[in-house]
């Protein structure tokens, strides 16, 4: 019995030990699992903290950008309000037929006393805030020409100049070209068109503003119709009509407008009037005479050139479509009209940009004409087109050489050189003026000799 009791006791002890060991093993496993989970949670928390720090820094950067944008918007709104006030006062002044007095919106409304023109001119000569050296410093500091102009021209200065020249629509257009806010520029042009409905320049600039701001509507077409009535021989109004019709998908009427434009022999060029009006604004801000002329000319808005390029692109795409479909007569009509339009533009402007855009239209159209005549087997016409292309390309190459050489010339221009250049452009056109600059004349002569040598070597080659 004792032996059995001893065996049973040992068995119980063994069972208890086994249970105790099993419990310990489970506890160890639970502790290990908990440790693993804790480590995972720690890593997750660390990652979240890193993401929170990153988000915080990104939020700070975003807040800084928002603050900068708010400051810029506030500045533009300030300029716009000042411009609006000037426009309102000038409009009242003109409608009431009162002597020119304009209120400027600064901290308080200040009445600007009208001075005799002679005294104003004398004051301008006495105070020169911006000469060539100071403007070059602005540009060398990293700013663009537009940045320099925005520093010089102020809403108050625009109003002050308009008070002296409010009867001239060209000065309203000039004010619009110098206003920093697009909304203010549009308001100047709308006022000009309302006050001077017979001014082709005011209407042209207003239509261009509508196109630039992508707001072509019934009023735009009404202004274009008015342009046609005021200046019926000006091809620009028909080109504006064609552009707007192309944009609206009305290709049939667009090509009719293009045809009408090609039958006219001139593009009205108001660039010199605009240049001289802008010159008054720069003088009023304290620019020297040469700086005023230079800034007026080099930043002169000629944005309708882009519109004419697009008309050419629309037209040539349609001509290609007709050509590929074998509709040679339809294609020929379009390219002939584009070529005429380019020739008229090239001969109408005082600045070489008119030449360059006009010749680009001609080269594109003449190239397509040649292709069509080759398809028709008209050898005589092909030779005629080749001759025309050669003449246009030679003039285009000449202008390219002059423009490239002018870059180095302009960097070393004195005040007198700059004044002579602008005056020459006004009197004789930019093409003739550039030709007469010694450095450019030398570059043209060098190019001519090089071409002669190349032609000579080609002639003697076996």
Percentage of residues in helical conformation: over 70%
CATH topology of the domain at 304-453: Serine Threonine Protein Phosphatase 5, Tetratricopeptide repeat
Shape designation: globular
Second rung of CATH, namely the architecture of the domain at 304-453: Alpha Horseshoe
Provide a quick synopsis of the model.
It is built from 20 helices and two strands.
Question: Could you explain the architecture of this structure?
Answer:
The protein has 462 residues and is mainly alpha-helical. Among the domains are: 128-231 and 268-301, Alpha Horseshoe (Serine Threonine Protein Phosphatase 5, Tetratricopeptide repeat), CATH 1.25.40; 304-453, Serine Threonine Protein Phosphatase 5, Tetratricopeptide repeat (Alpha Horseshoe). It has 20 helices and two strands. It has helices spanning 2-96, 117-126, 132-140, 145-152, 155-165, 169-178, 182-195, 200-212, 218-230, 235-247, 251-262, 271-284, 289-298, 304-324, 328-348, 352-376, 379-411, 415-428, 430-435, 438-460, and strands at 103-105, 109-111. A hairpin with a 3-residue loop joins strand 1 (103-105) and strand 2. Helix 6 (169-178) crosses helix 12 (271-284), helix 8 (200-212) runs parallel beside helix 10 and helix 12 (271-284) crosses helix 13. It is globular. The N and C termini lie far apart (135 Å).
């Amino acid at each position: 019995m004792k032996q059995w009791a001893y065996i049973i006791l040992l068995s119980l002890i063994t069972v208890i030990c086994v249970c105790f060991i099993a419990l310990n093993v489970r506890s160890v496993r639970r502790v290990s699992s908990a440790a693993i989970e804790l480590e995972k949670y720690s890593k997750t928390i660390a990652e979240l903290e890193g993401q929170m720090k990153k988000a915080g820094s990104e939020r700070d950067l975003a807040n800084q950008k928002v603050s900068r944008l708010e400051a810029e918007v506030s500045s533009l709104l300030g300029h716009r309000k000042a411009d609006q006030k000037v426009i309102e006062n000038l409009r009242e002044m003109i409608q009431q037929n009162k002597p020119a007095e304009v209120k400027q919106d600064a901290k308080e409304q200040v009445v600007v006393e009208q001075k005799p023109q002679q005294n104003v001119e004398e004051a301008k000569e006495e105070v020169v805030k911006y000469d060539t050296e100071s403007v070059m410093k602005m540009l060398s500091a990293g700013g663009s020409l537009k940045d320099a102009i925005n520093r010089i021209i102020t809403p108050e200065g625009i109003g002050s100049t308009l008070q002296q020249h409010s009867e001239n629509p060209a000065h309203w257009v000039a004010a619009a070209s110098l206003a920093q806010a697009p909304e203010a520029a549009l308001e100047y042009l709308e006022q000009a068109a309302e006050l001077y409905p017979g001014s082709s320049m005011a209407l042209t600039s207003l239509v261009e503003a509508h196109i630039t701001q992508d707001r072509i509507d019934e009023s735009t077409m009404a202004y274009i119709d008015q342009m046609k009535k005021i200046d019926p021989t000006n091809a620009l109004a028909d080109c504006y009509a064609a552009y707007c019709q192309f944009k609206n998908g009305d290709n049939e009427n667009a090509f009719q407008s293009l045809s009408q434009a090609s039958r006219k022999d001139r593009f009205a060029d108001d660039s010199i009037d605009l240049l001289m009006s802008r010159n008054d604004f720069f003088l009023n801000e304290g620019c020297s005479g040469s700086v005023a002329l230079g800034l007026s000319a080099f930043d002169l808005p000629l944005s309708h050139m882009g519109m004419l390029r697009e008309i050419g692109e629309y037209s040539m795409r349609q001509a290609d479509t007709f050509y590929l479909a074998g509709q040679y007569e339809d294609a020929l009509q379009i390219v002939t009209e584009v070529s005429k339009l380019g020739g008229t533009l090239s001969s109408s402007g005082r600045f070489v940009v008119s030449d360059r855009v006009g010749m680009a239209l001609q080269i594109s159209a003449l190239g397509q004409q040649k292709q069509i005549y080759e398809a028709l087997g008209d050898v005589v016409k092909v030779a005629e087109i080749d001759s025309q292309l050669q003449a246009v390309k030679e003039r285009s190459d000449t202008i390219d050489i002059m423009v490239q050489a002018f870059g180095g010339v302009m960097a070393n221009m004195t005040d007198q050189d700059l004044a002579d250049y602008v005056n020459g452009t006004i009197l004789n056109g930019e093409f003739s003026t550039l030709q007469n600059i010694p450095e450019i004349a030398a570059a043209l002569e060098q190019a001519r000799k090089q071409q002669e040598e190349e032609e000579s070597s080609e002639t003697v080659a076996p």
